[in-house]
Design goal:
Blueprint: E1 7-12, E2 18-24, E3 27-34, H1 47-69, E4 78-84, H2 88-105, E5 109-113, H3 114-120, E6 136-141, E7 146-153, E8 156-162, H4 168-178, H5 186-193, H6 216-232, H7 236-239, H8 241-267, E9 271-275, H9 282-295, E10 298-300, H10 311-323
Parallel strand pairs: 1-4, 4-5, 6-9, 9-10
Antiparallel strand pairs: 1-2, 2-3, 6-7, 7-8
Length: 342
């Protein structure tokens, strides 16, 4: 007897992207994202403006996802949403909409941890792409988080290392601001680094106990270096922009991969993945593959569309929860800070 297909509508609204996706079993039928350009003029995400934009975007985004997927609302088996972590106002919009829609359609409600979503994006059915074998390690790197996660089972994960101050994505964006780039500056560093010499300048690599990370010292090192050089040459940044970008990027990637290599050796794990917004960085994608060949790893890199915040990753996580009947109820509330493991 053929098993019934499971269709899940997922909503992601943890920061400044409003996203909705439709998943059938483990395949994504649609993954629609509406960004928010308004934050560029402020040099970063403004929480109040983000939540207002979500209010404007969520209905058309959900409608577009359903339309593109070619499904009827009556065919949806569950509604999933990001419960946290993230910006509270943004999360409340997605949570409230998901609760209302689940009530209207009389279907189960699934509250998803945003960070689990980044990790489990690797399990979206995507043609012939192989998937990590359990257990595996995932370096999850974004603007708000930098973690090495031990994935024991799909819904059983443990943080082995994390940042004790700033996230790697924040280090990219703050360094980019020092170089005069608009927000978000991380992708611009990546772009200019392709034309630069990564060995031209050296920056501090803070030593941290265990398998944790620290990027505040690196930001300070970059700031003082630029300030000192500009005393000698006011046009230092402009004259050396590509080399600065390449050197900064190299330093951040080396910090990330050196800790990852230590954990992989200690836990004797050879399936290694990356996830999160910074996993779209070309240098990180290249260097983890090179390191993987050297170390004998099986490396897993997500498609670009699943790197940044998106509802597809919430949908696949919800599917694993749906299969285990892990539902929530109408009393659920959004959480800006959410424990990684409940």
């Amino acid at each position: 007897m053929r098993q019934k297909e499971t269709i899940i509508l997922a909503i992601e609204s943890s920061c400044d992207d409003t996203s909705a996706a439709i998943l059938k079993n483990n395949s994504i039928l649609s993954n629609f994202i509406a960004g928010q350009e308004i934050h560029r003029q402020y040099g970063g995400v403004v929480p109040e403006l983000a939540s207002r934009a979500h209010l404007q975007n969520i209905v058309p985004v959900v409608n577009e996802a359903i339309k593109k997927a070619g499904v009827k609302k009556s065919e949806i088996d569950a509604i999933a949403f990001t419960k946290g972590p993230g910006l509270l106002g943004s999360l409340v919009v997605g949570t409230s909409f998901a609760k209302s829609l689940a009530l209207a359609l009389d279907v189960p409600l699934i509250d998803v941890n945003h960070m689990y979503g980044h990790v489990l994006a690797h399990f979206i059915d995507d043609g012939d792409k192989t998937k990590p074998s359990l257990p595996f390690l995932c370096l999850t790197v974004s603007g708000g988080h930098t973690q090495i996660v031990l994935v024991k089972e799909h819904l059983d994960m443990e943080i082995i290392g994390t940042t004790i101050d700033d996230a790697a994505g924040e280090a990219f964006d703050k360094a980019a601001k020092m170089l005069g780039f608009p927000y978000p500056g991380g992708p611009l560093i990546d772009k200019h680094a392709k034309e630069g010499d990564p060995n031209r300048f050296e920056f501090a690599k803070p030593k941290v106990a265990g398998y944790n990370f620290s990027f505040s010292g690196l930001k300070t090192s970059i700031l003082y270096f630029i300030q000192n050089q500009e005393k000698i040459n006011p046009n230092f940044v402009k004259d050396n922009l590509n080399d600065l970008c390449a050197s900064i990027q190299k330093t951040i990637v080396e910090i990330l991969l050196s800790q990852l290599a230590l954990v992989a050796k200690e836990y004797d794990i050879r399936d290694i993945a990356i996830a999160g917004g910074v996993s779209a960085n070309s240098e990180l994608r290249l260097k983890i593959q090179e390191l993987g060949i050297k170390k004998g790893w099986n490396t897993f890199i997500p498609r670009f569309e699943y790197c940044t915040d998106n509802a597809a990753m919430i949908a696949i996580t919800a599917k694993f929860m749906y299969d285990k009947q892990q539902f929530t109820n109408q009393s659920v509330t959004a959480q800006a800070r959410m424990p990684f493991k409940a």
